[in-house]
Amino acid sequence: MTTIRQRRVGKGTEASEDQPSEERNVKPDGKILSDHTGGKLWNFLSISVGGITAISLGLLTSVYVATLHENDLWFSNIKEVEREISFRTECGLYYSYYKQLIEAASIQQGLHGLVYDNKTESVRTINILERMNVYQEVFLSILYRILPIQQYLEPVYFYIYTLFGLQAVYVIALYVTSWLLSGTWLSGLLAACWYITNRVDTTRVEFTIPLRENWALPFFAVQIAAITYLLRTHLQPVQERLTLMAVFIATFLFSLTWQFNQFMMLIQALALFILDCFDMLPTAKVTWLYIIQISGLLLVCVLQFFNSMILGSLLISFNASVLIARTIQKNLKKGGLLNRLGKLVLHVLLVLCCTLLINKFIKKILNLESDEHIFKFLKAKFGFGATRDFDANLYLCEEAFGLLPLNTFSRLSDTLLFYVYIFVLFLMTVAAVIVAFRNLSGSNQVQLMEKMEECTVTLKPDAAYNLIHTVLFGCLALSTMRMKYLWTSHMCVFASFGLCSTEVWKLLLKGIHLYTSQRTHVIKYSIPIITLLYISYKFWPGIMDELSELREFYDPDTVELMNWIKSNTPNTAVFAGSMQLLAGVKLCTGRTLTNHPHYEDKNLRERTKQIYQIYAKRSPEDVYRILRSFGTDYVILEDSICYERRHSRGCRLRDLLDTANGHIMDGLGENEPDLKPSLYPRFCEEIKKNLPSYTIHFTRVFQNKTFHVYKLAKHK
Predict the structure, then answer these.
(1) What topology does the record note for this protein and the membrane (predicted)?
(2) How many Cα atoms sit within 13 Å of 566 on the Cβ side?
């Protein structure tokens, strides 16, 4: 609580004329004036009301998304198999491990089944705790088993309510971050309201519940809030140590729950690096944050049985390189403008070279190739040459990995969020550039302190960090739509902070020569309140209509398939098919899979490409040989893939396979000159004709409007 007061009045050398120091509230005999006592009481009441509002909004958000989920699926009324099918693609795979641990005879047996798993990838035994980020499922399953709630709450509800509960943590963290930056809880209220009214673009938790990002992003928001507090000036040593501990815990939990943690924290490390280079953050605190990132990731590496992908991450190489380069260049922040710029360019080059060398060395030693598909994808995405690589094209053709659609900005503009965001971003960016130039130019201290009054907001390390954070994650979101949720939630924080910030309005009004402290005070409260009233008036009816709209889960073909598998195949049967469908097969039936959607393993990617030859132009003998090499007993063919129309020509799965195999694609259109016609028809189409060359290897045992299941013959 004292830190909020400190933000409001304890600016040290930055104290302005409209904020008198405490000395003016002290009588000559040393007694505090009554108005100071009243101010302390007002601060206490303000913090209490703000805290209660934050918790209330967090809980309301949890109830809101839980209600939407129930209304959309009628989750409480549908069968268990339908509930499980509703966890689509990789969501079903992650939830299957929670279900497996719940159904295990004991906790020890359940953990043993994860460490020595032979059901997720046929003819292979893998360590699930090493390969995937499923410690949250482990923790929840153990918690469910030891708490006396089994007769009151089904396992699936315990799981989904935990995820919806984390949304409360998420919203509270966003609220607190905005409050810390602006000094008023009105800013946090506005941030939370923007998060809720822009739900389509800020979260997808209500329909992708077990997705890793829904576990991780609340902890990431807590980490940002803790970093924002850490970067404030005049913290007591105890406060600083406790905040560093909070940053470490949040970083560790974020890293533990999402496989893409290293890439998100690399962007965060780049933000710290940029600000440190321009003297906009305290170097000692930046060093601690680098160390926390490395230590948090290494601790996760240990828990994941020394996962080589973590050890070979660019984050560890980059942070280590920054610390090494800083040791080599001890006088980096001394000298005039040209001298500083020269040192800075050399410093950046040194860090980049060290990063690449260290990363290359680690990957060479560990023989690491798990993340090569990501770099192939990035290379192709940003135009560094076309590729026929199947894995890279699989990502390139998915809408989620494409550019951010323009209609996103129109939706964000409807709530005024985007307009306010651009306004605040422009002001702070201009001011930050000016301050960075002044820092590099080596002005004397007197001149610097005089100029600081003109750009107070950009001189605050916490505001500077959030500025670079939103810029870098904005660039990520613009380039990759799936990552927009990291940006849009912080956009709510940043825009609300700017709208409620004394420093931002002071900067603007001084720039147009209209500044008075009274005018600033009126604007910083009146405009946010008007914005809140506008949002309430425009979107409250829509939210009520949304909450009253009732739908029901309906997927009879998949339900029929899962029920048939459970009733007509042995428990040891091995199934091949698409990654997305097989995740549901494992969850609903417990059968063994040949492949699955968790794509961060080179052997699995090669295996998936081979299994997908069922949709390519290959001979029945080739397909049979491939499937049997993975121990396949049954193969599931989907008409939605075989006759796909969702993607345009060149991005259909069958087109990707044809191109990778060197074959001409189906349909009208151009083909690359070296592609040749295949000697065989498309397997998924031809097998349905029951020709002898196919029936000798494959027997159809199940069929409905969507799926065709074939049993493989077991030739000697």
Answers:
(1) Multi-pass membrane protein
(2) 14
- Asked if residue 505 and residue 427 are part of one domain, the reply reads yes
Tell me what percent of the residues of the chain surpass a pLDDT of 90: 74
**Full residue range of the structural domain in which residue 673 is found:** 556-712
Dist CA 342 CA 659 (whole Å):
48
Residue 688 CB: number of other CB atoms within 10 A?
A: 15
CA 595-601-607 angle, to 5 degrees, is 40
Same domain as 288, residue 218: yes
Q: Is 566 contained in some domain?
A: yes
Neighbours of 547 (CB within 10 A): 13
Q: d(Cα 387, Cα 439) in Å, to the nearest integer? A: 45
Same domain, 640 and 543: no
Compute the average pLDDT of residues 181-209: 95
Is the predicted pLDDT of residue 21 greater than 50, yes or no? no
Q: Which of 547, 576, 596 is the last residue of a domain?
A: 547
Beta bridge partners of 441: none
Domain-located, residue 54? no
What is the C-alpha to C-alpha distance for residues 227 and 220, in angstroms, rounded to an integer? Answer: 10
Same domain, 543 and 560: no
Cα 636 from Cα 575, distance rounded (Å): 7
Alpha-carbon distance of 473 to 220, in angstroms, equals: 13
Q: Are 634 and 573 in contact (CB under 8 A)?
A: yes
pLDDT over 70 percentage in the chain: 91
Q: What is the pLDDT of residue 32?
A: 43
pLDDT digits over 71-123, tens only? 999 999 999 999 999 999 999 999 999 999 999 999 999 999 999 999 999 99
> Cβ distance 510 to 454 under 8 Å?
yes
Report long-range pairs for 712-716 (Cβ below 8 Å, ≥24 apart). 712/624, 712/627, 712/628, 712/632, 712/633, 712/634, 712/635, 713/624
What is the C-alpha to C-alpha distance for residues 5 and 537, in angstroms, rounded to an integer? 33
